Give the backbone structure.
Amino acid sequence: MFSKILIANRGEIACRVAATAKRLGVSTVAVYSDADREAKHVAVCDEAIYLGGSAPKDSYLKGDAIIAIALETGAQAIHPGYGFLSENADFAQACQDAGLVFIGPSADAIRAMGGKSESKRLMESAGVPLIPGYHGDNQDAQFLQQQADSIDYPVLIKASAGGGGKGMRIVEKSSDFIDLLDSCRREAITSFGNDQVLVEKYALKPRHIEIQVFGDTHGNYVHLFERDCSVQRRHQKVLEEAPAPGVDTAMREAMGTAAIEAARAVDYVGAGTVEFIVEQREDAMNFYFMEMNTRLQVEHPVSEAITGVDLVEWQLLVAAGQPLPMAQDDLAINGHAIEARICAENPDNNFLPATGTLFTYQKPGHSTFNITDVRIDDGVREGDVISPFYDSMIAKLIVHAPTREQALARLDRALAQTRIVGLPNNVAFLRYILNTDSFSKANLDTALIEREQDKLFDQHPLELSTLVVTAIAQQLASEATTQGSDPFSKPTGFRAYSDYTRSFSLVYDEQAYSARISNWHNASCTDSKKGGDNLSSFTLVIGKEIANTQDDSNINVAAQTKTVYEGQISYDSSDAHNHTLWLDGARISAQSWVNNETVYVFTDSGRDEITLIDIMAHVGEDTAAVGSLKSPMPGQVVAFKVAVGDTVKKGEPLAVIEAMKIEHTITAPTDGVVAELLFAAGDLVADGDELLRIDAEG
């Protein structure tokens, strides 16, 4: 076994490798960029060496610098993790040439399987089923469009050197082919430095099922069964589970055998994943080779959970020249495991990646980087910043149980106990997926999210009254910690001869509300159902602001307020974050955090947010300029779709921004004429930078 390894990666996977290395007594060397100087992976490794600038090309993609650091620190091997240089054949060869062990397959195996076109030709010669398509070297755009036309639509354009869901476009009709090909190639160059693509038939109602394989230097091969990764957005996985629902023993053995033969064909060594597209027919499921990922996968923990195997440990053992610890007959499936990828993104805004600070990051009871009922693998801590330079994943939440139904319940409960405040995230969205009929009943395919969109997007699981009361309780509890001891300074607004009344202004789901509490008092309640002496009660009235109207003389009439809720409310706050509410006869436990006036409310039923406006903080503020268009995220301008003087309609594409290796199209917020472009293609922009100006019509 090695005595020291360098981990050529960052974040969660760097922490994951370091955890197993530490358990095996292997020292670790971390490398870091400017953005990661204070990162978790830097703290958990035994040594940490500065690598370069924040952009991957200035740090984690600098293979020569990484090899030099490994040699200087006395590391014997380099673990590439996933992403960055993990599937770079030249880097693997350079490690070998420098006398270092690359913890992964040989450069030849990476080349054979890393190019999608070459790997498909190899699989075709080996008799592995392939889906119809063109995988050749002719990259002329018109030729590729002709191939797509002959295959028939829909087709999938896929970057030949791609992975991780990047560099992929579904084309529904011939007229869209060239534009989507150009977009795919731009993304492929940015992510992989190679714009070669392949075109293949897009299977209807497809499932994405993959096989975990392992090979050693002694000619031994095993597979560790299958994973279903069909739930995807932007061709990137959201939920993964093992074993795959509906796969019987015969299909499992056939796919496993095909995967091992694929690995054997290139003398594969180490951990790899053979991915299949599974076409679902009424009478059968047919599988077709899609690609092989020559590295450890993000979703490897679900395979670890059902087999009891530490796959990183196996990687280190095999790379050190030892044989596989187990034979195929020694491996068996135990129970069911599901992994949820928790990401900094906004599902309700086309999964737009988000950046910012993890103001609050609380997790359920769990293990870290080892097999148990609830496991969380992450590379961040509360207070860390999610930057625009790297992947948006915050953490992986993995659960294991005897059955799929129990695993679903366990995952839902764990997600309900996860609290993230400070930037948009998909925790609530993941819970919505779990509770759809499609997922709960294992009616799986890659279009599940689109099919269930009515139950997944723009959801509000909490009642308005719950949000308002929690926001008020949060505000009053916060005020109580800063007030003096005499009754006149208390947030109750003590009155000797009159009732107490207080008003609040709120915004929920882009609608303005007012709330008024009155006759507030301590209930001094001894009823065990409603707490003790700290219980507070008040009458709550919630009003909804109605848009201004005009009378017969076209004179504006003042906005009206319509009462939408009125009731007697009781609550008890143990601190500013933890509240027990009694609303309409129901007892509700809620937690809340405030960030920039927005109150984030969490209950067992879900999470939502409401803005409690501090009126004094906004005195004198100007409204935003009409017709301006700002970047919704930090990134790089890929292209402008319009020029100064162009007339545009609301929703028309204006610009393309690249962030976190994904392209995003910015659309017109209103009809108008383009007055000014404030940046050029290639420029870097910050979150909120004004990109262009539009003179609104009229």
